[in-house]
Protein 1
Amino acid sequence: MYRELRLLLLTAALAMFIIGYLPAKQASDEISDISTVPPVWRKRVGQLVIVLIDALRADFFFDDVTTDEKTVPRPKAMLTGSLPAYVDIINNLNSETLFEDSLLQQWDRAGSKIVMFGDETWSRISPVKFLREDPTSSFYVTDYTQVDENVTRHLNTELQKNDWDVMVLHYLGLDHIGHIQGPGSPLVPGKLEEMGSVIKQIHEQLNSKQFKDDLPPAIVVVGDHGMADGGGHGGSSDPEILVPFVLISQGIQGEKRREDGTDSVKSPRVQYLQVDVTPTVAYLTGIPIPRSSMGRIIDGTFSSLSPDHKLQVLEYNARQLSNLSRDTHGVELLHEASRLIMSKNLTPEDMRAVESLFGSSILSYQENLVGNLTNYDLYILALSVLLVISSVGIQPGSVSNLSLPLIFLILSFHFLTCSVVESELCSLSPAAGFIIFLSVLILPSIRHVNNSVKNIVFNGEFVPLCFLLPHSFSFLSSSFIEEEHQTLYFLSATLLLYSSINTDIDDKERGRRGQVLSAGLALGLHRLLRGFNQTGDKWRHLPDISDNLNLQPNLRFNLFVFSAVSTLIFLNLSYSGLVLNFIIIMCIILQKYYVSVELAQIVYLALFIKIVVQRRQSTLFYETVILLCCLLLEDTNVVCLFVLLCYLNVVKPVMMHVQPATALVMAIVIIKSSFFYFGNSNTLSTINVGAGYIGLTAYSPGLVIVQLAVHTYAGPCVSLAYLLQHLEKDALKDAYFFSTWSDIVVFAILCILLRFHIFVWTVFAPKLLYFGMELVVFNAFFALSSMFSIFMR
């Protein structure tokens, strides 16, 4: 029982570390007031249409794309002008009402009427009521046609009306194609052409009618995020973070053109942060900049103003940012610009100098705000690392060995720390009290760390130290974090070679020959598995087996059917078991072919029946995991799953004839390697969101998260379920705990030391979330495994 408790405490300590390292954003309830707006800041467009095309990569729109800056693109960033916290990615699965000051609230306060057609997220987050709306569900990720047609069908009617001021159109089709087939899909050009036709229709209809308020209309075309080369998004590559921002309006001075319609000057394309959309749209519609906006107004939108009016616009933007940042350099520049304005008879050179000062002040403020998004709570981070280290020392009776002097020492240290630092742990909140109580119970176990480490894995052998610790210390390099699979693949091959020459079989000659043959075959299957899906960062763009199969649909489907049916040989071969498993496999094949929600639900029902009917079968849990993974995985990865099962069965006799500690290390390396076999990585962009919706007819955050977790960790779950049948369970749990514990200790210390490193958000933060999810999945896995064992009695 203490093993499960130890793993649970490690999970809790890591969760505490993640909360301290990636804190949730505290939204301000302050609202910008119209009284702060200068006279020149007035409505510039009669009707504004925002066309938000989900997953619109910059290179879908422009021929040449380069980048200098990176930020985290999100719709909320465009509405509020502030960057979301990193852990807000979890809220993407269940968006809540946006109460922070935003364009939506400011439009409502100004009396502007808003109509919205598209992604239902807008209806969920909007704190104001739309004049008219038709939200489309983002639930069905396989739909890339109807989901957009439901938006476009409103255009003819709505564009003829003048009772609205802002129209929001959020198209999801391109994003759905990206999740299913990636940016290289033959469906992408047709979808882009469709979006081009939509923009053309909007422009022609808006400009062919009487302008509202005698002001010209405007169209903003923008993407909320891009698309990774392999499909999906959430990483930091240029295709994922670079999106176009296009403003079309007669009222905005653009680039001068020759009589033949070509550009008179080929100016370089300018890059802005996505938060810069917020003050720009606020300027066009004449509303105050939202209170928490970090953006700067895009230069070209007000270039036609007179010099003194330009200064008013820039000063307002600078003063709005000064309310958020206390950057000393920005303050100095703002004061110097204000001093020059107060002087009389400004020459043109003076006005240009003031404009430059305001612009520099805005940039300085923005860099300060974006560069200081997180205030780390070092006490939480340090205490959580101590709890992580202490968790390995948990032993039977650890709590009963507590002494009053030890409790007094821990509490004294806590109060002393709170007297010199500011921390959430020093508050009187119930959460802080619970954490301190937990610390009092766990921290004394740090005395037993040394003995526990020796007892868990080593058992006098040097092999575990040679293979597990190098993997942990590889996290000291950001490149090795991004390419973690390379380390694990190397360790897998090395362990197989090592096991082929170190056998405990009595008949050395025959045993070594058989061991070498088994290890050689396992090496071949390992090489096949690692070639199925390119992953990581540097070589992910290279073609792999899955890519080649996707180019040949017939071959891909035939291999999928063969692999799915052949999986039966690794399951229960009794008559009743074989019949039920065959029915489930056939339903899975039909579900993949027809992409049917009903067939997926039939599979879930059949799995439930299997659990009830075959509850006394020893391999029930193992078989259930395999069949569930077959349903959730893509057809190419079902082929990969079959090869993995072959690999596990080939490597089993190799593991049975080496020292127990070596076998455990091999098991841990196989479990961790199998995560990457299926195309996963340490970036969020490889998560296939579509897998979370298989078999669902209504949105359920809990079920979506569970299915996403099973899909993402299908490889480790299948490997662990198999190995639990052939290795001593407690020893395997101990080995997994030690390997994960050593990884987290090294990585957590690295995160603290390099908390201001450039790769915090692109490398460290995603890996932290993956560590956390892995522990949650394996806690649930071990709990379910125990429940199945009890159920079979």
Protein 2
Amino acid sequence: MAMVPGFTSYKGWSPSENVIPLSGKYLAISLKEYIRIPIYSSMCTVFEKGSPAGGVRAEVRVTNVTPQDSAVIACTATNAYGSHTHNMELKVQDVPEAPRDLRVTREGSRSVTVTWAAPPSPNTPITHYVIHLKTQTVSWESNSVRQLRTEGSSTSAVLEDLLPAKVFQVRVVAVNSVGESPSSEPLSLRTDGEAPSAAPVTVRAVGVSSREVQLTWAAPDPDTWNGQLLGYYVGHKQDSPVGSGRSFSFDTVGVTGGGEETWTVGNLEKFTRYVFVLQAFNGKGPGPLSTEVFATTLEDVPEAPPEDVTCVALTSTRVEVSWSPPPAHLTHGRITTYTLTYTPMDDHTGLPAGEARIVNGQSATVGDLERYTNYSVTVAAATRAGVGVSSQPVVCATEEDVPQAPRTIKVVMNGPNSVIVAWAAPERAHGTVTKYILYRRAPPARDPIRRILPPQTLWLEVTDLASNHLYEFWVTSATRVGEGPASPVVSATPSATVGSGIYSVGGEVRAARGTDVVLSCQHVGRPTPTLSWRRDNAPVTHDSRYEPQLDGGLLIRDCQRSDSGNYTCHASNRHGSDHVVYTLIVMVPPAAVLLHSMGSTSTSVTVSWRHVDDGGAPVRKLTLTWRPDPGEWREVTLARHLTQYTLGELTCGTEYHLYLTSHNKIGPGAASEVITVRTKGSRPSPPPQHRLISVNTTAVTLRLTAWADQQCPIAHFSVRFRPSNQRDWQMVSGRLPGSQKEYALGDLAPATSYELSVTAQNPAGETTAAYNFITLGLTGDHLQEGLGSISGGRMGPTGGIGTAAEDVFTDPAFIVPVIISCIALVSIVIAITLCIRRRPGNGQNGNQGGRGGRFLSHFCSREQEQPGGERTVLCNCQEARALADT
């Protein structure tokens, strides 16, 4: 019976199975009967051998199969009776390929959604995916790598429990029944930020001045920043019933990056308790408030003077002064003492400098004063910080007292029974003279005759005297307090012979400029005396200004300073002569003082002066007039005894014009010459870029303290920036105070070039500097940023840019590349020199491939044979030629 070839089962599986499992690296296929299989590939090997059941057993072994070997295999057996074909489908299974196109489709602060494209999985479905998640700083082999599993039918996953504003790396592995695929390409992602979740810690506050409190604190834990920490909000308000209903006032403070942050809160009330809080903030907003801390500003001098200052005279040499404290809110501390200053105001005292006394209470008795004298009294309160503002002067007069003795007395004969007695008023009356008392005594009588005269009487003719009898005379003056001491005693003996006698007493006469003065020369004598006037020993010429009077006096009209001098009236007849001397002092306003500058600081100017002429009367006060340029004139009144003064609280870097005027009882004198003084300081100086800018991924910190204020404190900063590919500037909201140490620009794009313009202004002017920077990439890598401060220049008030050379040539960002370039250039020159020297010389052409050629091969890129036997070698982009051997 003829047999048609057929197939039988082999190794436990039937010919009808379509899937042949893999075991190791080869596939076994069993064929039966007389079969021949063509060998199409070196991967296939056919074996034939006998079978116990008869016939032929054939095996085809295919080694190193791949999924690409999957196919339908037809096996046909043929004999004389026919043929039979059996089809078998070969499916080669393998692990999946790596997932592709991994991307973020939704990004949050604490979760993200990632998607990917499902990879091919040869002949078996993907059962699930494994997502590997780690932070940027750890390796994939670390135990901290998180693994998440998702179903094989899903190509997305939500990654949760992440930290805000952190950079993570994700990769995905596909898994099927065979095994795991290779990992996908890692994907770097950054979670969105949140406001900080913790407050600054270890906050401390301490008063450093009467207007300032210094705060120190540490940043919260970095894991709670939830983004780039841009700065802090420092809040303050008064800790009092007044401030309880108020909200905090906040200052914005940048991040210094040190271990401890510091900020000084200014413009506070003096000697006042404050409460302070802090908040950290990032690009998403502020975090929670810190624990409240308290501090009190330091004491300062009282801002207001004591009130209700009164002065009461107790005696002619003692006064009592009392007062009440300044208003409590203007005291600025605890009052420790009061300073009581009293200054005489009358010319007879010589107007010395005032005297001061320290008083503990609110009243004081001042003694040892001049009698019947006006005093200017001021009171100032003092704290531990010093003496405050003085009260407005209160004029206080001591009581009257008995007068001094009349200044002089004289007696002249007027006939056989009469004399004329004349006297001068006392130098210090110690009050208002109410009367004069003339005493006469005829020795040996002991009791004098007393005659009371009105206060305007300064001479008296005494009659009814006995001829040729000696008489003594003296005079006293009296105030309402009583009678003062007596003048010296003068004597006279009346006689019929009356020589020339002048009973005007003379002395010092003071007159204001422009007034008329009469110098009296009352006289007696028989015969009538001859009179003459001399000035400083020169005869007085009578003219329209010098006019003699009927009684012998001299009228000087419209007195001028040049009229000052000694005037003498001479009287003579045949019985004798007499004279009287006047010293005329014409008082005028003081002459201009000599004013000059002694130097300046950034906030003060010191001037000194020398008096030339007080104008014949003591200087009562000084007036310093000044103004800034430009600005309005102002003046300050100075004590008369000063010879130098420091004008403070001025603006730095500014010119000031000053002049000084002195005053006496006549009025203000001529002003001194105007002097010009400039306070120290100039426009701010910009820093190099590496000192100003600290770059991060999405933020830039500006260290504003890097600006040099040039002894003139910076008032404020203006900051603007823009991406380099845009035209419009973005302004930082508001001006930044000059006291701000740092400022952070947030919400910037990673790996992006920006232009920055910073303007600093102080009273001396403003300076604008321009800079370029590039933010870091998400992985924190630096991109090329140019040469640092070379791209930072200085702009003047007109906006023109000028490079600050001193900054460029001291900036490492400039120096280091220059040095490296120089070293590279020298190396190239040396290499070319060695190349030329060590090439073959005058040898044979056949030696050109010898030692010199091998050496050149280390430097040269190619050799070319040129016509004429000339060999050209190109080395390091430079061409070196060597002539062929001759």
